Amino acid sequence: MSPERQTGFTLVELMITIAVLAILLGLALPSFQGSLRSNRVATTSNEVLASMSLARTEAIRGIGRAGVCPSTSGTACVANTDWAAGWVVWHEIPAAGGPVFTVVKVIQPKQRTTVTGPADGVVFTAQGRAQAGATQVGVAPSDAADPARCIRVGVTGQSRIEQGACS
User: Fold this and answer.
1) Start and end of every General secretion pathway GspH domain (predicted)?
2) For residues 166 and 153, is the Cβ–Cβ distance under 8 A?
């Protein structure tokens, strides 16, 4: 009679497999953290750029001025250079007794990302030009200096993203 062989893993084989897996994860995790950080910055930069484009479009539609400004409540602008608490896109409608400001879009706060821009925001005229001239908004991860992005708004109102911190 021949003895039956059992198939499967022994405890030693399982422990060696787990040890190898732990070593591989230890090597891959720091690289993955950098990818996550870069993705957060790119996503936030694109969101700022989209907000600028929406505000400029609202202004060009002929309703009146429009802009992007920092906001903590989502209903009104606050004079603050820290935009990480969120921002709003707004436009004004001319009315008797003064213009009426309407919030078009509210952008929620960004975690682990630093967003800095002009304290009074960016305002576009009905011609689509930046009212205060050329300006910039910087985006960077809150736990490191790199990767950083700079959204530059030219005098003509066109916006673009550049790699690196704003200077």
Assistant:
1) 45-157
2) no
User: Across-strand partners of 139?
Assistant: 115, 149
Burial 53-83 (b: 16+ CB within 10 A, else e): ebbbebbbeeebbbbbbbbeeeeebbebeeb
Nearest to 52 by CA among 90, 79, 102, 15: 90
Tell me which residue of 79, 83, 123 sits closest to 99, measured CA to CA: 123
pTM, to two decimals:
0.80
Q: Which two tokens stand for residue 10?
A: 């022994």
Read off the pLDDT of residues 85-138 as tens digits, 9 standing for 90 and up. Answer: 899 999 998 888 888 889 999 999 888 899 999 999 999 999 999 998 899 999
d(CA 80, CA 66) in angstroms, rounded, equals 18
Which H or E run contains 28? helix 11-60
Q: What are phi and psi of 75, to 5 degrees?
A: -120, -20
- Chain centroid offset of residue 82 CA: 13
C-alpha to C-alpha distances, 9 to 13, 16, 17, 111, 150, nearest whole angstrom: 6, 11, 10, 44, 54
Alpha carbon distances (Å) from 33 to 25, 109, 113, 149, 165? 12, 21, 14, 18, 20
